[in-house]
Amino acid sequence: MNNTEFKDILRFPRLDTVLMVEEFIKRYDGQFKKRSLWEHLPKKMMYQTFCVIIDYLLYSRKISIDSESKVGWI
Fold it and tell me: What band does 50 get if pLDDT is binned at 50, 70 and 90?
């Protein structure tokens, strides 16, 4: 991500929120699609914030999205 991509982000997630999403994905590896995953999180957050976390996890290669659009932990 470069600086021009940051200007569109309204809220940056806190570390505890990123870790919560990571743990949830580890626990339910491959069971949810992106939107459903967001709906089942134990703590509610804005969808845009959730998308920033997912983009970060994809970029850092901690997660992948399979051919059925399900999110899995690597």
Answer: very high
- The pLDDT of residue 8: 74
Could you tell me if 34 and 69 are in contact, meaning their C-beta atoms sit under 8 angstroms apart? yes
Q: In 3D, which of 59, 51, 53 has the Cα closest to residue 16?
A: 53
Distance of CA 15 to the CA centre of its chain: 12
Single-letter amino acid, residue 66? D
Nearest to 8 by CA among 44, 51, 37, 62: 51
51 φψ region: left (φ > 0), alpha (ψ -120 to 50), beta (else): alpha
Task: Retrieve residue 37's tokens.
Answer: 């995953």
Paired sense of beta strands 63-65 and 71-73, if any: antiparallel
Given a contact cutoff of 8 angstroms between Cβ atoms, the answer to whether 26 and 63 are in contact is no
